[in-house]
């Protein structure tokens, strides 16, 4: 979505006769560049909160020792994105001491619930200093004054105060030429920051944000010397953005709106590979890359569990295989006792997440869902906008960062009961059953514009098909696969048909995801085997392919389509397919489908493309 | 109309809440509605981000109209490009 379009929508809402736009807040995540965020945040300050949806109000005051004009608009955007409608009071330049000490200051009269104190290095450093001891005593003096002001302010106003660690400007640091001197300066500075952090541990209403530590993770410059000298702006807009993001997380924690549940996918999220196909010993998990990246995901998930976050699973898999892996795989960190509820089945994930919310009796707005699949993340984002969705695309080593970055689970403090929460919810989940009502997944599938391309296997696609046949255990109708030689023979023969198919949707193309081995007989065609990657399972792709085979068989003049099926302990997911497509059970592991009248198998939401078809004689 | 002009007019529009179409090259900053030195800094930040350039602050504040800013951006781009 275009930045301009979003800004125009916000501008529309500032007009006197504006109509509510509840979808706007969800679309704000498309704004990424800071000037656009600044403008959007400034404009949103003029929009009545009721036009934006159901939001929790919060009064926030911003005061400080320097000019930070970007913090208010950036904070507003970040808070609105978390369901909080802030009323923000911004004090004038360098009003900190007056704001905190005077009971009649404009800030005190505003009556904030949260007061943000923005500090910069020169407020602590004296204009002239020659030796580090003198600096130390001056910095300590300043800090002690600040500490006293904050203490008196919280007692008088009842407002929570957020202080932060203060990065030291490189100009100050490089001003000292001796390495020894720099070390001494660095230590004085760390003592100051340590004292600032200590305020949060000493005073109930004071909290601290370790800004210096967040900046380590951001590729930004602390200040623009021109804007510092011209306008006393001690932070670049990028630093303002880092601060505003973390301060908004603090505000969410302050209002008790932290997320409570982390719903995790399994394949390629908690381990590498597809356990149903690769097997228990074939998944990537362990001490070597990429297995160690997945182990780290598990370790961090368990760390969240120990701090009170409820873990749940939503995975398209055979439950028995997953149970076995979770209980017995030697390299796993996460174990059944860590997981409060599971939805391991072949149902759509939005349906499963609603089911988990019912089981755990927790609101969907307290859920975070993490999955590597674009399909699943878009489905959940569209179907349940209240759920925070984390798309774990890219390298598995980055999964942990992606999970942590949103600060979704940030709370003010954790207690002993947080550690016991999983057991509590586990018991609750076991008592409740899934509610079976669902319809919207079809709307989603319709919106995907799924295109299934079918063609006869050729020199290029045949190796991939053979490999797919060997690798696929779940959607594999016989549990075995045709060897390469036999596949080649069949592909070359006019009595047989070997098809491969590709799938694409509006998110991209999957390439070859399956194939079919067919032998042609006088009065019927036999599907000897049908394999498909379970990545595209439950989207109607398999139905579309069988529709194509049935139509092709019908036009060659045969009266029925037959299909072989052999049950294995891995292919339960596929077992329901032929009956679902209208086949009847016949003796000896065979299914049969009459072709008169023409069976309707394919769903209306897929488009079939047939490439390079040879005549069936 | 140059591409730089369109982008600059967009940013001026964002900062002043005026429709970008109404911003002409000879529009003087000090005659734009609600123009303050704070708006000038917001515009500077926006321009520097958008075009990945760094303007000389003293020259920037000496610029009188939108056309002058477009020229300054173009020359800064040449220097950095």
UniProtKB/TrEMBL annotation, chain A:
<feature type="domain" description="N-acetyltransferase">
    <location>
        <begin position="452"/>
        <end position="601"/>
    </location>
</feature>
<dbReference type="GO" id="GO:0016747">
    <property type="term" value="F:acyltransferase activity, transferring groups other than amino-acyl groups"/>
</dbReference>
<dbReference type="InterPro" id="IPR023214">
    <property type="entry name" value="HAD_sf"/>
</dbReference>
<dbReference type="InterPro" id="IPR010037">
    <property type="entry name" value="FkbH_domain"/>
</dbReference>
<protein>
    <submittedName>
        <fullName>D-glyceryl-ACP synthase</fullName>
    </submittedName>
</protein>
<dbReference type="InterPro" id="IPR010033">
    <property type="entry name" value="HAD_SF_ppase_IIIC"/>
</dbReference>
<dbReference type="InterPro" id="IPR016181">
    <property type="entry name" value="Acyl_CoA_acyltransferase"/>
</dbReference>
<dbReference type="InterPro" id="IPR036412">
    <property type="entry name" value="HAD-like_sf"/>
</dbReference>
<dbReference type="InterPro" id="IPR036514">
    <property type="entry name" value="SGNH_hydro_sf"/>
</dbReference>
<dbReference type="InterPro" id="IPR000182">
    <property type="entry name" value="GNAT_dom"/>
</dbReference>
Automatic annotation (TrEMBL), chain B:
<dbReference type="Pfam" id="PF00550">
    <property type="entry name" value="PP-binding"/>
</dbReference>
<protein>
    <submittedName>
        <fullName>Acyl carrier protein</fullName>
    </submittedName>
</protein>
<dbReference type="InterPro" id="IPR036736">
    <property type="entry name" value="ACP-like_sf"/>
</dbReference>
<dbReference type="InterPro" id="IPR009081">
    <property type="entry name" value="PP-bd_ACP"/>
</dbReference>
<feature type="domain" description="Carrier">
    <location>
        <begin position="1"/>
        <end position="77"/>
    </location>
</feature>
